[in-house]
Structures are given as C-alpha cells and as structure tokens.
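Section 3.1: Structural characterization of target chains.
Under the original work plan, the team committed to producing a structural model for every single-chain target entering the pipeline before any wet-lab resources were allocated. The record below documents one such target. The sequence was received from the expression subgroup and is listed exactly as submitted; it comprises 350 residues.
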Amino acid sequence: MVNITKLDEERRKHSKTIAIMNNKGGCGKTTTALALGMYFARTGKNVLFWDNDPQSNLSQRLGLADDQHKDRRVNRLFENAGFSENNQLSLIADFPYLMRMRGIESSPGNIGLIGGSHYSEIAARALRDKLETGYGELGHRDINRFFRDSLESFKEYYDVIIIDTAPSLEGNALNIMSIKAANEIIYPIDGIEAALGVKTILTWMESQIKYLDVKPNGLFAMVKYQEDTTRIGLENPEARVRNSVYRIMKESFGSFVCDTGVKESRAVRFTLPGFGGKTSYTVLCKEIDEKISQNSRPSLFEYAAQNGFFKRIGKYKHIPLSCARILRQKVDILGFHSFVCASKQKPRNQ
C-alpha cells in the first residue's frame, strides 16, 4: 500500500468522473473501465476505480477477492454515512510493473479502488429511503446529491474516477446515482443486441438528467466487434474494417462514436491493460481521452433531441446472429431508418 497526497488546485479543476454504462450484460463494460483507468494512470493521472456493480467483477479483475477488505467497499459509503470520512474508503494499490505511456515523461499515477459489494444496492436503497423520510443528520435530503458530493471529496486526490455499473436501468439506485454524478458516460457497444438497446438507455438517461444544472456528455465505444467484408473509405489506404453495426452507429451519431474499434479477442479481453505493449484498447482509450478533453464539445443528449431521437418509436426486429450470408436489410434499429446486416437463412425443409 502507498500513501496519496491531495492534488494541486489546477489538477482538481480538470478532474472528471466517467461512468461506463449499458443495460446489456457482457458487452465489455468492465474491460473498458479497466482499460480506460489504466490508460489514464499510465499518463501520470491518479485514478480511482469505483465498482458500483454488485457483481464486483471490476474489483475481482484488480485482484480484490470478495472476502477481502470488506470495510473498503461501496456499501460502507451508505452504511457509515455521517460517521466516517469518505476518503478513508479507498484502497491505494501499488502496481510496481505498471508501464508509463510512451511519450509521457511523468511516472504512472496512483491507482485507488473502492471495491464492489453484493450488498451495495441494498445499502444505497436503505439510505435513500432514510433520507426521503426526513433524516437530516447528513445535511442531504437526496441520495443522488449525497453520492455526487461524496465523489467530489475523492476528487481532491484523484484526477479521474472510473465507475463500473450494473447491466440494469429502472429501479437501480446505484445506476441513477452514477449517471447524475458523472461528467462523461461511455457506452460500450459490442454488437447488434447492444445497439438495439441504445434508444432505450438514452431515453431513460435523458429522463434522469433533464433537471440537472450540469448534464453529463457521452460517447459510444465499439468493442468486441466482428470483421465485415465492407470497408469504409476505400480511397483511404489506412481504412479500417468495420462491421455493419459500427456503420449504422456512425451514420446516426457521427463524432459521438469513436473511430477506433476493438476486435473480438479473448487475449485482449483477459489481459490487464498497462502491463504490456500497445493494444487496440490503448488506441481506443487515447481517442476517448482526446474527445472528452475538447473544449466546447457538442452534447450527445442535445444532438439526439435535435434529431428527434426521443420522439420516434422504433419497432425492433429480431436480427439473427447465426448467419451464413450477410445481407443488407432495412430495419428501424435506433429510432432512425438505417441499413443493418441480417442473415440470409435458408428455409427449413418441410
């Protein structure tokens, strides 16, 4: 374990909270959270991993077993509210073999973790109910404001807070807190199922943030995509192979979709980023960093609203995945009429 000191005022002004969210399970949220956090640490930033998923996969990937350090878990933030200092919750890890990013002169930053807990959602709801019935000892009457202010106290020490979330929407207290506390939301999209859920998750999020004074922004990250036979921009010798889902997302959301994709690879998925050479996740994280650092960046939610995204009602059709040949079929997938790849299935013999 190592000690961590407070950031100077200039660094604190640029600190960010980034939530990794999608209502689909298995789409790469935890791997993306891990890769992005390690990328920032390798560039010299202090990073706090915050595991808001009761499954605690992020904590496990970072080496924290379920039976270890139970006093440094998310549930303790809510159970001990008003009785202990929040900044004592985080575990400060020492990774002696973490490689700094090429071209960065400073040493890697510190890495902290607030571990997930199977009881975190229960503890969050209990405190929420307590506050709603008039409990005023915390100086808060709203659980979302309490959570956001708690994160602000950690920003005195960390440049970036990365929140991993559970694959659920309605009724999930931790996910509601995450979206209302985040500056940026990264949506991993791994294929047709996750893309079909984009309209649902954005509509739900828009309903949650509409009354916030400062609203989060968002980006889509294409992960675990499968190669297609069609190239984008054949006139460009460096054109990358993209699948049909990427093309539809790009047509619908433009610069809000990262140009870099991460192809399906078991080796990449189960490698701890930062302890080896450059991977496609490194390139993706660099692009995310560049995009979220832009001044006067357009808002994803304003863009979606201006294009009538929240007003259209899409009829989701089943897209067979076990395809023999890929066709282009017109399907209303994101609330926009777009072309997607579906499979040409041979009729069964009667």
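The beta strands are 16-20, 47-51, 91-93, 111-114, 160-164, 184-189, 217-225, 257-263, 326-332, 337-343.
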